């Protein structure tokens, strides 16, 4: 890919602005964990990621979409045939150390700040999300094991995943249960040797079968017979595709069988599978049943899996932001180069046509995309910084506060980019006009890829119930209080700055106060069904308030810059505060009324 085209993936200037001018990542390098790094090493890693994304991932993105994973059967065994450029791209990222960028040095990691790792991943999400998904799941799998596995499990399974030799999945859903994990039926029978034999069916498993590496490490939720009912009876098991021999190398095939593939509208390069465990397709140790190893405590599976799920949720938000961003850059490039029409009021039909970026409505659509994409990317990078604060802040109080704030923001960081990222991609198609919905241009694929993000790793409705039903009241509301304090501190700084910043601060203060008030009204209501009936509206309103704060922060960070980046930040902030934040008022009024429209609608009427 020509170097100029690389800046149609992400903006190097904006990523550096967000990391250095806004989040001051170099301050983290003063802490012991990151002491080997500096601004220079951070920038070098980002440049490496940008180059690999452009050279190894972007070139096969369209082929990866058009030539989907294929189910093939060899001697009665289901296999997956993938595009031949997927494995070399993943191998290049692994060999560059980017899979282990944020991991501990003891397992071969670089111990870079997590916020830098989030920025690194954004380049690959934008370049080819279908291929990068394999790496994202593998890293999340390794992080889960780091947090909940035994020393032996970590030593056995984590290094091969970070080296790109093993790949990882998460196996939660089942055909009959969907997102209702309390209703899963996969069971795990304890064995005399301390292992378990698993039997059941898992659905929607991304990366569930392929030959990209030597092995696949499945993280599987299952129930041990005799355990508690519901989610308290769920345990977590490591179930490899191949069992390891005495030398730690893949040996006997485990009883995990590919049943079929799910064909998605987007992320087509990421194989999505239906798997049977323990049906007897393979007989490890001479008998049926998938051999699994308990991870963490029995009955603690969902809590352990949430370590991976929460990382994946923020990863989904990062992917949604990156897809919105690359779609924006490509539509901006098109608008600058596509001549069509003349300015309103121009009378001479012989006058030359102007680039469509000269038309006010096109600039409106570009501003909206910029506000959504840059706001979403900034939000997920901020969450990455909170991970670093949670791990390395100087005091325990600061670490606890970062944890609570991150927990509160996670449903927003997953869902806000996933809602408004596709809207940005839709506008990118609109800017292209008739060319936008043709496969010759990238933007239609970006829209299809991004449309999956509101669903996987928990739908908007699930995230909304999590935010309103749990996160704003957890720990006595400490996380929500930390969010209020964070936003209020910025509002005070902006008010002191004067000018546009003070105007926006007043608008954000009014919206925040109203959000706090309505949150109190909702949680004072005794009927949980009524309280949560419009939780998705609450999620959208709270998300807009948070992203308005993100834009106010960026405005302050760009103060005094008289270049295109600074002027662009001011224009996008103005757009968000003039066009987007005012939407929150009617939403909060509706929530405060405890509207029952949805509850009172009989299913028979629909």
From TrEMBL:
Return the InterPro entries for the record. Acyl-CoA_dh-like_C_dom, Acyl-CoA_Oxase/DH_mid-dom, Acyl-CoA_Oxase/DH_mid-dom_sf, AcylCo_DH-like_C, AcylCo_DH/oxidase_C, AcylCoA_DH/ox_N, AcylCoA_DH/ox_N_sf, AcylCoA_DH/oxidase_NM_dom_sf
Q: Which prosthetic group or cofactor does it need?
A: FAD
Q: Does the keyword Transcription regulation apply?
A: no
Q: Which residues form the Acyl-CoA oxidase/dehydrogenase middle domain?
A: 170-244
GO MF, one annotated term: flavin adenine dinucleotide binding
What are the Acetyl-CoA dehydrogenase-like C-terminal domain coordinates in residue numbering? 487-601
Q: Specify the Acyl-CoA dehydrogenase/oxidase N-terminal domain's residue ranges.
A: 43-164
Q: Which UniProt keywords apply?
A: FAD, Flavoprotein, Oxidoreductase
User: Which segments constitute the Acyl-CoA dehydrogenase/oxidase C-terminal domain?
Assistant: 299-466
Q: Which family does it belong to?
A: Belongs to the acyl-CoA dehydrogenase family.
Q: Which PANTHER family match?
A: ACYL-COA DEHYDROGENASE (PTHR42803), ACYL-COA DEHYDROGENASE-RELATED (PTHR42803:SF3)
Q: What protein am I looking at?
A: Acyl-CoA dehydrogenase
Tell me what organism the protein belongs to. Pseudonocardia halophobica
């Amino acid at each position: 890919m020509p170097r100029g085209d690389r800046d149609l993936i992400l903006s190097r200037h904006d990523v550096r602005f967000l990391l250095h001018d806004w989040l001051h990542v170099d301050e983290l390098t003063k802490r012991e964990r990151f002491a080997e790094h500096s601004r220079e090493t951070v920038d070098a890693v980002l440049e490496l990621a940008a180059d690999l994304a452009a050279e190894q991932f972007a070139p096969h993105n369209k082929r990866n979409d058009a030539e989907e994973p294929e189910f093939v059967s060899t001697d009665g065994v289901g296999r997956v045939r993938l595009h031949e450029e997927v494995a070399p791209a993943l191998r290049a990222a692994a060999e560059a150390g980017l899979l282990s960028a944020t991991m501990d040095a003891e397992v071969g990691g670089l111990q870079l700040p997590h916020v830098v790792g989030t920025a690194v991943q954004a380049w690959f999400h934008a370049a080819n999300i279908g291929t990068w998904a394999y790496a994202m799941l593998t890293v999340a799998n390794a992080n889960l094991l780091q947090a909940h596995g035994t020393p032996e499990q970590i030593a056995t399974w984590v290094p091969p995943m970070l080296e790109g030799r093993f790949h990882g999945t998460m196996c939660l859903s089942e055909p009959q249960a969907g997102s209702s994990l309390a209703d899963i039926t996969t069971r795990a029978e304890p064995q005399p040797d301390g292992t378990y034999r698993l039997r059941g069916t898992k659905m929607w498993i991304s990366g569930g079968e392929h030959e990209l590496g030597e092995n696949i490490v499945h993280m599987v939720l299952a129930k041990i017979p005799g355990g508690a009912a519901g989610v308290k009876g769920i345990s977590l098991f490591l179930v490899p595709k191949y069992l390891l021999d005495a030398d730690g190398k893949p040996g006997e095939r485990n009883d995990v069988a590919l049943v079929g593939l799910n064909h998605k509208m987007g992320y087509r390069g990421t194989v999505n599978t239906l798997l049977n465990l323990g049906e007897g397709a393979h007989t490890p140790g001479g008998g049926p049943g998938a051999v699994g190893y308990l991870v963490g405590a029995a009955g603690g599976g969902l809590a352990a899996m949430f370590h991976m799920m929460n990382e994946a949720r923020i990863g989904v938000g990062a992917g949604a932001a990156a897809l919105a961003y690359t779609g924006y850059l490509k539509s901006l490039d098109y608008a600058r180069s596509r001549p069509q029409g003349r300015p309103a009021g121009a009378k001479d039909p012989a006058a030359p046509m102007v680039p469509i970026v000269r038309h006010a409505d096109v600039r409106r659509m570009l501003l909206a995309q910029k506000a959504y994409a840059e706001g979403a990317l900034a939000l997920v990078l901020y969450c990455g910084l909170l991970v670093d604060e949670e791990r390395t802040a100087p005091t325990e109080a600061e670490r606890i506060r970062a944890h609570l704030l991150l927990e509160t923001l996670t449903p927003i960081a997953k869902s806000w980019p996933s809602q408004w990222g596709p809207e940005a991609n839709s506008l990118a198609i609109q800017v292209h006009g008739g060319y936008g919905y043709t496969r010759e241009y990238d933007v239609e694929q970006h829209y299809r890829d991004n449309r999956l993000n509101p669903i996987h790793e928990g739908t908007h409705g699930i995230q909304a119930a999590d935010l309103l039903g749990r996160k704003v009241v957890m720990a006595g509301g400490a996380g929500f209080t930390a969010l209020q304090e964070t936003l209020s501190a910025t509002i005070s700084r902006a008010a002191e700055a004067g000018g546009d910043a003070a105007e926006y601060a007043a608008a954000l203060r009014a919206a925040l106060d109203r959000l706090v008030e309505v949150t109190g009204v909702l949680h004072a209501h005794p009927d949980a069904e009524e309280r949560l009936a419009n939780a998705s509206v609450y999620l959208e309103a709270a998300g807009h308030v948070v992203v308005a704060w993100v834009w106010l922060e960026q405005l302050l960070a760009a103060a005094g810059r008289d270049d295109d980046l600074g002027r662009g930040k001011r224009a996008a902030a103005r757009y968000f505060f003039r066009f987007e934040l005012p939407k929150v008022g009617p939403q909060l009024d509706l929530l405060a009324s405890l509207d029952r429209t949805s509850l009172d609608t009989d299913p028979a009427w629909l």
